[in-house]
Amino acid sequence: MDREPLRSTPGVSNIWIGYVPDTLEVRDTFEYIGDWYDYQPDLTYKVLPKHLHKDAYKLVKGEEFVQDDDKWSVLKVKLFRYLREERTRRLAATDFLMVSDFPYPSEDIHTAWVTYRQKLRNMTATTSQDLLENNQLVVNWPTPPIWPANVV
Fold it and tell me: How far apart are CA 6 and CA 16, in angstroms?
Protein backbone atom coordinates (compact mmCIF):
# COMPACT_ATOMS: atom_id res chain seq x y z
CA MET A 1 0.00 0.00 0.00
CA ASP A 2 1.30 3.49 -0.77
CA ARG A 3 0.14 5.23 2.39
CA GLU A 4 1.81 5.63 5.76
CA PRO A 5 0.64 3.14 8.38
CA LEU A 6 -0.93 4.07 11.67
CA ARG A 7 1.99 3.40 13.99
CA SER A 8 1.77 2.14 17.54
CA THR A 9 4.18 0.78 20.07
CA PRO A 10 5.20 -2.76 19.04
CA GLY A 11 3.48 -5.41 21.13
CA VAL A 12 0.98 -2.96 22.64
CA SER A 13 -2.69 -3.22 21.81
CA ASN A 14 -4.32 0.10 21.03
CA ILE A 15 -7.88 1.06 20.29
CA TRP A 16 -7.88 3.36 17.27
CA ILE A 17 -10.77 5.73 16.72
CA GLY A 18 -11.39 7.11 13.23
CA TYR A 19 -13.50 10.25 13.04
CA VAL A 20 -14.50 13.08 10.74
CA PRO A 21 -12.51 16.11 11.93
CA ASP A 22 -15.20 18.69 11.07
CA THR A 23 -18.08 16.98 12.87
CA LEU A 24 -16.18 14.74 15.34
CA GLU A 25 -18.43 11.89 14.19
CA VAL A 26 -16.82 8.52 14.95
CA ARG A 27 -16.98 6.23 11.92
CA ASP A 28 -14.32 3.60 12.58
CA THR A 29 -13.06 1.81 15.68
CA PHE A 30 -10.63 -1.07 15.87
CA GLU A 31 -8.14 -2.63 18.23
CA TYR A 32 -4.77 -3.50 16.83
CA ILE A 33 -1.19 -4.32 17.76
CA GLY A 34 1.52 -2.89 15.52
CA ASP A 35 1.24 -0.88 12.30
CA TRP A 36 -2.07 -0.71 10.46
CA TYR A 37 -2.49 0.07 6.78
CA ASP A 38 -6.14 -0.75 6.16
CA TYR A 39 -7.69 2.43 7.51
CA GLN A 40 -10.09 4.88 5.89
CA PRO A 41 -7.98 7.69 4.40
CA ASP A 42 -10.70 10.34 4.77
CA LEU A 43 -10.80 9.94 8.57
CA THR A 44 -8.50 11.21 11.28
CA TYR A 45 -7.28 8.49 13.66
CA LYS A 46 -6.23 8.76 17.27
CA VAL A 47 -5.51 6.18 19.94
CA LEU A 48 -8.12 6.05 22.67
CA PRO A 49 -6.41 6.81 26.00
CA LYS A 50 -6.07 3.72 28.21
CA HIS A 51 -8.02 5.33 31.08
CA LEU A 52 -11.19 5.48 28.95
CA HIS A 53 -13.44 2.51 28.26
CA LYS A 54 -13.91 1.75 24.58
CA ASP A 55 -17.69 1.94 24.96
CA ALA A 56 -17.92 5.10 27.09
CA TYR A 57 -16.08 8.00 25.51
CA LYS A 58 -16.84 10.98 23.32
CA LEU A 59 -14.85 13.44 21.27
CA VAL A 60 -15.06 17.11 22.18
CA LYS A 61 -13.81 20.26 20.54
CA GLY A 62 -10.07 20.26 20.27
CA GLU A 63 -10.38 16.60 19.21
CA GLU A 64 -9.83 15.32 22.73
CA PHE A 65 -11.35 12.16 24.16
CA VAL A 66 -13.31 12.46 27.39
CA GLN A 67 -15.47 10.07 29.33
CA ASP A 68 -19.12 10.12 28.25
CA ASP A 69 -20.85 10.08 31.62
CA ASP A 70 -24.20 8.99 30.15
CA LYS A 71 -22.66 5.96 28.44
CA TRP A 72 -20.46 5.24 31.45
CA SER A 73 -23.39 5.18 33.88
CA VAL A 74 -25.08 2.52 31.72
CA LEU A 75 -21.86 0.56 31.24
CA LYS A 76 -20.99 0.62 34.94
CA VAL A 77 -24.35 -0.99 35.74
CA LYS A 78 -23.54 -3.77 33.25
CA LEU A 79 -20.08 -4.35 34.72
CA PHE A 80 -21.54 -4.75 38.20
CA ARG A 81 -24.29 -7.02 36.86
CA TYR A 82 -21.53 -9.29 35.48
CA LEU A 83 -19.91 -9.23 38.92
CA ARG A 84 -23.17 -10.37 40.55
CA GLU A 85 -23.71 -13.07 37.91
CA GLU A 86 -20.22 -14.52 38.42
CA ARG A 87 -20.62 -14.34 42.19
CA THR A 88 -23.92 -16.23 41.92
CA ARG A 89 -22.32 -18.85 39.66
CA ARG A 90 -19.54 -19.42 42.20
CA LEU A 91 -22.06 -19.73 45.02
CA ALA A 92 -24.15 -22.21 43.03
CA ALA A 93 -21.04 -24.28 42.28
CA THR A 94 -20.50 -24.73 46.03
CA ASP A 95 -24.10 -25.24 47.15
CA PHE A 96 -23.60 -29.01 47.48
CA LEU A 97 -20.99 -28.35 50.18
CA MET A 98 -23.57 -26.76 52.47
CA VAL A 99 -25.86 -29.75 52.96
CA SER A 100 -25.90 -30.70 56.62
CA ASP A 101 -24.53 -34.23 56.10
CA PHE A 102 -21.67 -33.39 53.70
CA PRO A 103 -18.60 -35.43 54.78
CA TYR A 104 -16.02 -32.77 55.61
CA PRO A 105 -12.67 -34.16 56.77
CA SER A 106 -12.60 -31.54 59.53
CA GLU A 107 -14.65 -28.73 61.05
CA ASP A 108 -11.94 -26.26 59.95
CA ILE A 109 -12.60 -27.08 56.29
CA HIS A 110 -16.35 -26.69 56.79
CA THR A 111 -15.74 -23.29 58.44
CA ALA A 112 -13.43 -22.27 55.58
CA TRP A 113 -16.18 -22.97 53.02
CA VAL A 114 -18.78 -21.10 55.05
CA THR A 115 -16.38 -18.13 55.27
CA TYR A 116 -15.60 -18.28 51.55
CA ARG A 117 -19.29 -18.28 50.64
CA GLN A 118 -19.96 -15.37 53.00
CA LYS A 119 -17.17 -13.38 51.36
CA LEU A 120 -18.78 -14.06 47.98
CA ARG A 121 -22.16 -12.85 49.28
CA ASN A 122 -20.56 -9.69 50.67
CA MET A 123 -18.78 -8.81 47.42
CA THR A 124 -21.55 -6.69 45.95
CA ALA A 125 -21.67 -4.63 49.13
CA THR A 126 -17.91 -4.42 49.70
CA THR A 127 -16.71 -3.92 46.10
CA SER A 128 -16.48 -0.20 45.51
CA GLN A 129 -18.23 1.14 42.42
CA ASP A 130 -15.12 3.27 41.95
CA LEU A 131 -12.79 0.26 42.02
CA LEU A 132 -11.83 0.56 38.39
CA GLU A 133 -8.59 0.28 36.48
CA ASN A 134 -8.57 1.69 32.96
CA ASN A 135 -12.36 1.81 33.30
CA GLN A 136 -12.49 -1.95 33.77
CA LEU A 137 -13.90 -3.51 36.89
CA VAL A 138 -11.10 -4.91 39.04
CA VAL A 139 -12.27 -7.70 41.32
CA ASN A 140 -10.32 -9.47 44.03
CA TRP A 141 -12.16 -12.75 44.31
CA PRO A 142 -11.85 -14.64 47.59
CA THR A 143 -9.71 -17.76 47.39
CA PRO A 144 -11.69 -20.97 47.81
CA PRO A 145 -10.45 -23.59 50.29
CA ILE A 146 -8.19 -26.26 48.82
CA TRP A 147 -10.44 -29.21 49.72
CA PRO A 148 -12.19 -30.59 47.73
CA ALA A 149 -10.05 -29.60 44.78
CA ASN A 150 -11.35 -27.82 41.67
CA VAL A 151 -14.84 -27.02 42.93
CA VAL A 152 -14.88 -23.43 41.74
Answer: 9
